[in-house]
Amino acid sequence: MRYLFSALILVLVLFSAQGQQGKLSRAAIDSVRALHAMREGGDVLHFTKSRIDMGAMFESDTARIVSFFFENRMGKSVAVERVTSSCGCATVKFDTAVIAPRGKGRIDVRFSPKGKAGTVDTDIFVYLPGVKKPVARLILFGNVIGSDEWEHLPLRMGALKLKSRKVDFGRVTRGQRRIERIACANAGVVPLRLSTLIKPQYVKLRTEPEVLQPGEEGDILIIVDAARLKKMVGEQRFRVVVEGVEGAPSVRTIEGVLYLSDEKE
To answer: What is the pLDDT of residues 184-237, one digit of tens each?
Structure first.
């Protein structure tokens, strides 16, 4: 009885929040029903995770598929009848086969970020045959970054957007210390602190600011200390592998070139 009372209180709160905006949305009503159904019916389908964080993605990314795994905790065999989504951006796929007690099942959700820039907060409701109310509420959340927001930074290393993966120092005199900058931005949802472990001894990498906060622009600084360059004069090429972002080393590599000279400018 106390669960039903809690659900009714939640309905009143939602109606109050709506104010003069009209009726509650279908998603809001289903959310209340799911809350009551799950508390009233107990642990019918036990999900390993009922919430999945998709993290940050770009609006131009291909659709992402995530899976919710569950176990039948009822004392009889059951089949999932239908699964609904609160957003057309998320389509579901599930097996309608009968699942024995303690049997396993899976619900796949395909999320398309196109046209969904901003915060993602999608509800998935699971229904069983003969039961009007959902027996489970699953939540998909994350952040979709608009494809035009970082248009001036066309390249990408995980959540890092940048202007280029190449730096050209031109002519550098032995003993000289030179800096080249690459414009960048943190297009993700967590702070980025960049570093490098794979680089020549005469090259350093740092960022300004030192930590890139979500949505913040800055610069990657590639620093060459030609005094530590022991090679003969002429063209020198090097690579720096960036740490602190996701992706294969080939994706996280910055290429550099300089022309070492013994003559002063």
So the answer is: 999 887 899 999 988 999 999 999 999 999 889 999 999 999 988 877 789 999
Domain residue spans of the chain: 43-145, 155-261
63-97 pLDDT, tens digit per residue, is 999 999 999 998 899 999 999 999 989 999 998 89
- What would be the CATH architecture of the domain defined by 43-145? Sandwich (2.60)
Instruction: Pick one of 3.40.50.1000, 2.40.50.100, 2.60.40.10, 3.40.50.12160 as the CATH number of 155-261.
Output: 2.60.40.10
Interatomic CA distance for residues 72 and 243, integer angstroms:
43
CATH topology match: 43-145 vs 155-261? yes
Torsion sign over Cα 208, 209, 213, 214: negative
CA 11, 13, 18, 19 torsion-angle sign: positive
**Three-state DSSP string of the chain:** CHHHHHHHHHHHHHHHHHHHHCCCCHHHHHHHHHHHHHHHHCCCEEECCCEEEEEEEECCCCCEEEEEEEEECCCCCECCCEEEECCCCEEEEECCCCECCCCEEEEEEEECCCCCCEEEEEEEEEECCCCCCCCEEEEEEEEEECCCCCCCCCEEECCEEECCCEEEEEEEECCCEEEEEEEEEECCCCCECCEEEECCCCEEEEEECCCECCCCEEEEEEEEEHHHCCCCCEEEEEEEEEECCCCCCCCCEEEEEEEEECCCC
Distance (Å, whole) CA 189 – CA 246: 13
